[in-house]
Amino acid sequence: MPEGPEHPAPLLTLAGVRKSFGAVHALADGRLDLRAGEVHALVGENGAGKSTLVKVLAGVHGPDEGVMALDGQPVFFGGPADARAAGIAVIYQEPTLFPDLSVAENIFMGRQPLRSLRRIDTAAMRQRTEELFARLGVRMDPDRPARGLSIADQQLVEIAKALSFDARVLVMDEPTAALSGVEVERLFAVVRSLREAGAAVLFISHRFDEVFALCERVTVMRDGRWVSTDPTAELTVGQVVRRMVGREVSQLYPKQDTTPARSSCRCVT
Ligand SMILES: Nc1ncnc2c1ncn2[C@@H]1O[C@H](COP(=O)(O)OP(=O)(O)OP(=O)(O)O)[C@@H](O)[C@H]1O
Ligand SMILES: [Mg+2]
């Protein structure tokens, strides 16, 4: 396929990725193609294999089979440090910062800028943290302890940390699950600025309104397998749901059965 604005070269690809835990085939055929400058949704029912795919990307799980490539070059991650060095950062739903360390110390943990006599250069660390937050359009005191930060603010610290590593791929596994409406909007503004800066963002969510508001393309997974990848503009919520569940929703929820418990199911909201 010719490259160009319509078909930019993929930044990160996964193909034929398998991962089993004993008898559980968490991933049977994981595939992904992420482009620089896109926010890409990954959707699927509970247990579809989304988080397992993320953990392969993050170097947490070595795949049993399959290939991963960055800029067209095959890569193998022996652990999370390899993935991070390759520019892949994962923001989890509930980050775990060190509560007694400051925001800046959490960001530069283990690689603080040093002055003479190997003393930590706190002024430089503070300034770099301020620069990172400025790039994200976020206000936060670099010197405050992480303890007491909201989950939303902890995620922003993690995103700042990812920027400090020059991450080009940001993976967000259900980042909005514990956020308020205002916090979701702020996160979206940050994600859009990362996209403007050329990052690829993989966004996992069970909320279709978020997927359709934020993402350029949508990959659907079912039972550990890739089902489809399409531009969001060419999809309807109904199509996405049918692909997630693998059959017509009317078959799942027959018309005569409209008890409140059924109709409040996540799949049809
Ligand atoms: N470490 C593990 N050991 C055993 N089974 C696992 C492990 N991790 C995941 N699984 C299983 O693999 C399957 C896929 O799980 P995964 O967490 O990837 O799904 P998911 O799409 O992220 O679901 P959710 O939307 O609920 O987060 C599930 O059946 C899960 O129970
Ligand atoms: Mg998951």
UniProtKB/TrEMBL annotation:
Intracellular or extracellular location(s): Cell membrane
Domain of life of the native organism: Bacteria
Primary site of residence: membrane
InterPro entries documented for this protein: AAA+_ATPase, ABC_carbohydrate_import_ATPase, ABC_transporter-like_ATP-bd, P-loop_NTPase
Pfam families: ABC_tran
Keyword Cell division among record annotations: no
GO molecular function annotations of the record: ATP binding; ATP hydrolysis activity
Ranges of residues in domain ABC transporter: 12-248
CDD domains per UniProt: ABC_Carb_Monos_I (cd03216)
GO cellular component terms given for this protein: plasma membrane
Keywords from the UniProt entry: ATP-binding, Cell membrane, Membrane, Nucleotide-binding, Repeat, Sugar transport, Translocase, Transport
Membrane topology: Peripheral membrane protein
Keyword Transmembrane helix: no
Protein name, per record: ABC transporter domain-containing protein
Organism: Phytohabitans houttuyneae
